[in-house]
Amino acid sequence: MHDFAEWLGSTPLSIAIQSRLWLTPLLQTIHIVMIGIVFVSMLSVALRVLGQVRTDEPLAEVWHRFAPWFWTALGVMAGTGLVLTIGEPVREVSALSFWIKMTLIVIGVASALYFGRTVGAVAVAANPVYSGRARVVAVATIVLWVAIMFLGRWIAYDVEIWESWHLA
Predict the structure, then answer these.
(1) Within the chain, which residues score under 70 in pLDDT?
(2) Most buried of the four, 9, 91, 92, 103, by CB within 10 Å?
């Protein structure tokens, strides 16, 4: 993988990304705003399952309001993340934080799909009681997206954070 990252870092596309001093900060800003939208979207749904917000609305209504924001922001986040990775591939593939973050994102998407499926299975009553499993998934979802945000920031400090576990 490291050899591939070195090759990718020497391609004209990667060099073009690296040579535009304004591009990386712009993409990072968009990426960070998108993770905020993803987080708030999932937080709103999770807190609805926990009965903490929007209790006068059915989960289906809350999900249908926030799901488009979640999926759109996730797509933009994936696009900006891909360009950022192409711009600094060696740093990314050698960062343990990066790989943990990617794994957690897959789990986060599975969690969002779970909520989407739960919406179809739950009665449209304004304030149903959710199963213990749904409540655990809601809490885990909040913790998961907070961890993803921290891990994204830690990529820049991977050597200092993970020391001997750093993949370089």
Answers:
(1) 119-130, 166-168
(2) 92
Which pTM does this prediction carry? 0.84
Are 89 and 9 contacting, i.e. CB atoms less than 8 angstroms apart? yes
pLDDT attached to residue 168: 64
121: tokens are: 């299975």
- Cβ contacts of residue 158 below 8 Å, gap of 6+? 94, 95, 96, 97, 98, 166
- Sequence-distant (≥ 6) Cβ neighbours of residue 79 within 8 angstroms: none
Q: What's the pLDDT at 23?
A: 92
> How many CA within 13 A on the CB side of residue 5?
15
Helix 132-154 crosses helix 96-121 at what angle (to 10 degrees)? Answer: 150
